[in-house]
Amino acid sequence: MKKKYVIVVADGMADYPVEELGGRTPLEAARTPAMDSMAANGMVGRASFIPAGMAPGSDVANMAIFGYDPRRYYAGRGPLEAENLGIELRADEIAFRCNLITEENGNLVDYSAGHISTREAKVLVDFLNATCADETVRFYPGVSYRHIAVVRGNCEELLNLQCVPPHDIIGKRISEHLPRAKGKKEENYAASLMEKTRALLAGHEINSVRVDLKENPANMIWLWGQGKKAVLPSFAEKFGRQGSVISAVDLIKGIGRAIGLTPLDVPGITGYYDTNYEAKAEYALESLKKNDFVFIHVEAPDEAGHNGDTRAKITAIENIDRHIVAKICAAYSRDDIRVLALPDHPTPVSLRTHTADPVGFVLYGFGIEQNGFSAYSERTAAASPVFYKNGFELIDYFFNNY
Q1: What is the pTM of this model?
Q2: β-pairing, 4-10 with 43-47?
Q3: What are the pLDDT digits (tens) for 18-50?
Q4: 66, 124, 318, 328: which has the fewest Cβ within 10 Å?
Q5: Which of 323, 217, 256 is nearest to 59 (CA)?
Q6: CATH of the domain at 256
């Protein structure tokens, strides 16, 4: 049988010790027999997926997990998500990630507008196209609160704007964190566009209903993660593997599409706590009948971290272990598969945002020798002598250490 390779990314799973958990992390508190079995029969180690000086985002980190050095290839989050939406960026166009957010009394209170449904969000994005799109800007609907704005012209000015991810400024003053050119205070196109949408969206019927239902309205957009078209060498050329990507979010699917992997449409996956974990495993196993590699990404632990929800994070980790990792490992003998499970970055519930700390990984399968740990956690990974300073090199070992 041809050898199979699976990477399972539990986005934002890594954390710090939590007082309410008796000094344990959510991963340590979670019941994870499948990942612990991988540790007992494989290798535990650490890797750093955020190069020094780069923002600790899922874009940078997952690019590194795929095996691409972000310092060389990273060109912004927006164009990666645009790639999956089939948006062809011209040379004079910039793609921004465009969140639907909740503003209240001048503060950013919710980076996701209450995790607005994709159906409601599309109505609002279509409304923005009808009311303020022109030859300079157009909006493209994505999933839930995650969308794309493409701006034409002034590329250098737009690329050099300092834009803050909205999940980094929850509860803070919007006026103090709008996009700004370095060292300048005057308003720019991106900032003025964001302010314009505040007036447009506030009175929309969708938001009136959401307020009546005591749900956070999507009453403003937030632009960040801008960049020009991504150009990456193919995964097949770099690693000699063909395969697929399973994720609910356009970012991960966009990276996969940009490097020649096939994003799979899996029913019921949402990018939130209620995602269809079982279907991710089922579609991965079906894909492995034809291909030798699949990349499975689960957003739920990251969302729980941003929400500061310890219990939801534990539940998400347990669902990943039970419904994805356990099923993947059980489907093949150890001699026929290699499985790598890991987070991309920490999203500590105490901070509600990403950090750049190295993360632990667990690697199991043919040719992988056990290195002395009976469980997988941040603590066991920190005790391991295995450490990849350049996290993008881990995939080389994953594929080629035998």
Answers
A1: 0.92
A2: unpaired
A3: 999 999 999 999 999 999 999 999 999 999 999
A4: 318
A5: 256
A6: 3.40.720.10
